[in-house]
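Example 3.2
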Amino acid sequence: MNEYGSSTESTKLTNNRHPMVRLVRDLKRRRHREETRLFRIEGHREIERALDAEIKCEFVIYCDSLPRFRKCEGTLNRIKELRPDAKLYAAASSVFANVSQWQNPDGLLVVASQHEPSLDDWEASVNDVYLVIESVEKPGNLGSMFRTVDATGCSGILISDPVVDLFNPNVIRASLGTVFTTPCAVADTAKVIQWLRENQFRIICSSPQGSRSFLDVELDSGCAIVIGSEKDGLSKMWFESCDEVVKLPNEGFGDSMNAAMTANAMLFESYRQRQLSANLI
């Protein structure tokens, strides 16, 4: 047994001074996630998708006295089957409330090892469509974009010069766990552009200063849709490297759309075009 407990049976968590309770609370902070190379996943849907993606669960905290825990029983059993070495903790409801970030928690939380999504491991296809996100600073926006990529069958997400880390609990929750099942790579902007050029992708940047509506551009294959941060937009390097700058039609007083909404509109237009092309074959 180490300071966190045994892997063969559930350790009781009855007070908030236990080292595991401190660890899980500390993982809300990026600095601690980076130092330990661990992160937290809460909720049965998010954990199920992490298991689908073969994320390595190290520790499991559950509270079977919470009303919503019945949704998690199957997930907990699956963890025990797939990750028999994971250390189990049965928490009192007061302790689980202390570590949870949810108002009405499911009663299941895991601590997992971080994985390194590298662009060097990717193989591109000429028909791929990628979403590229530069320096998006809001976890909810980033998580929402993962859900849209998942829903539209996009090939994956490239994150350039990240501000928010993928293991932020709010990214995971906003993505409903699709952050684990969606192909993703993180690199600096220069490397992402180099990879796109080497693989002959058209680079389509989104900006309120675009010359054409995105509705008038081919987005069905062989392209990267590039979205910048809401605060600063895209960096100069993208505009110097892109094939076209497009905009969203806007009949209102606002000068731009939310970054996640922009990605949503362009990815669903790409999906529409791909479906149309498939029906014409």
